[in-house]
Write a sequence for this structure.
């Protein structure tokens, strides 16, 4: 199934038709779709009104440099800043991770969305795409933070999505623009990069997003296109039973599979439950590649919003208010 990107602040006539296609499971929103908090709420209502079946509405609201909605939303610090605070007091830092998750999720749910693709479980080892999106470089530290973050997301009523499996942090290249190859053996990846994912799974993470990275010692294709990575490693070796998302098929590292239709087919054949077609230019080809048929939605619907708080009640929640105070940049300095 497909999670599609849309062009602007309101749906086009074509996008309203796309939402009626049985293969379209939802929408992912970006900064290009944001004008104000009220407008995002209206856009979510418009998406739901035009979809034939319940659509997941998603976003990447991580904090730091990846925060799609800003004006009217809490200015979330990067995960790296949360990780750095562990040097002063680890228990307090882990609580900050839970509070970060709770504030982020509460605001996104109050906006009418279902899901923010979070947390980043990659190691902070200098990857150009990840950067300060990662908690830390040390796998044990990242594992503890990921588990705490999942707990905070669940407390707010949102499913948690670990990304980017099996680990994007140990290569330099940004897969938005270049192919990335990680030549390590599986034992090295398991000892380092898989640790935070396993900690997140143990904490009850509901979904994963695959990496577009190639690990040639394990499989010849990028992980998201790899039956081996998804079935033998993620599901069998790690025991994960949740939802599997591709990363965006519009990224340069996805082009090795061929055109849009080929990318989608390879992801689905490998075992992804849903494919992200984020650039609006990709969407017509993505839609046309999917036959008209009944698609199984039950797994994806486990990720729908578990609560929809009203904006004007958020500040009345004692934990939300305490979390905002704790995450304030002046207090964290």
């Amino acid at each position: 199934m497909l999670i599609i990107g849309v062009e602007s602040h309101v749906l086009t006539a074509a996008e309203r038709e796309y939402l009626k296609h049985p293969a379209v499971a939802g929408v992912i929103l970006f900064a290009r779709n944001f004008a104000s908090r009220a407008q995002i709420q209206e856009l979510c209502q418009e998406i739901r009104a035009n979809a034939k079946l319940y659509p997941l509405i998603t976003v990447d609201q991580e904090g730091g440099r990846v925060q799609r909605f800003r004006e009217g939303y809490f200015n979330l610090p990067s995960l790296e800043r949360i990780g750095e605070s562990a040097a002063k007091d680890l228990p307090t830092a882990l609580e900050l991770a839970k509070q970060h998750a709770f504030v982020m999720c509460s605001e996104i749910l109050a906006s009418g969305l279902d899901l923010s693709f979070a947390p980043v479980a990659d190691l902070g080892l200098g990857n150009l795409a990840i950067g300060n999106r990662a908690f830390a470089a040390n796998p044990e530290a990242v594992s503890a933070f990921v588990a705490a973050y999942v707990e905070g997301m669940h407390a707010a009523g949102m499913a948690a999505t670990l990304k980017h499996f099996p680990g994007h942090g140990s290569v330099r290249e940004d897969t938005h623009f270049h192919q990335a190859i990680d030549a390590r053996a599986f034992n090295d990846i398991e000892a380092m990069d898989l640790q935070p994912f396993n900690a997140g799974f143990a904490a009850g993470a509901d979904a994963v997003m695959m990496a577009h990275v190639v690990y040639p010692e394990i499989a010849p294709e990028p992980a998201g296109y790899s039956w081996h990575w998804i079935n033998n490693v993620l599901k069998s070796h790690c025991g994960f039973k949740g939802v599997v998302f591709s990363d965006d098929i519009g990224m340069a590292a996805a082009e090795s599979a061929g055109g849009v239709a080929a990318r989608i087919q390879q992801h689905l054949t490998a075992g992804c439950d849903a494919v992200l077609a984020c650039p609006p230019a990709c969407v017509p080809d993505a839609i046309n590649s999917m036959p008209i048929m009944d698609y199984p939605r039950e797994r994806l619907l486990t990720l729908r919003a578990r609560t929809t708080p009203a904006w004007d009640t958020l500040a009345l929640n004692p934990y939300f208010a305490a979390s905002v105070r704790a995450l304030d940049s002046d207090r964290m300095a």
Q: What stands out?
A: The CA atoms of residues 129 and 174 lie 5 Å apart. The mean pLDDT is 93. The chain has 14 helices and ten strands. The first helix runs from residue 13 to 18.
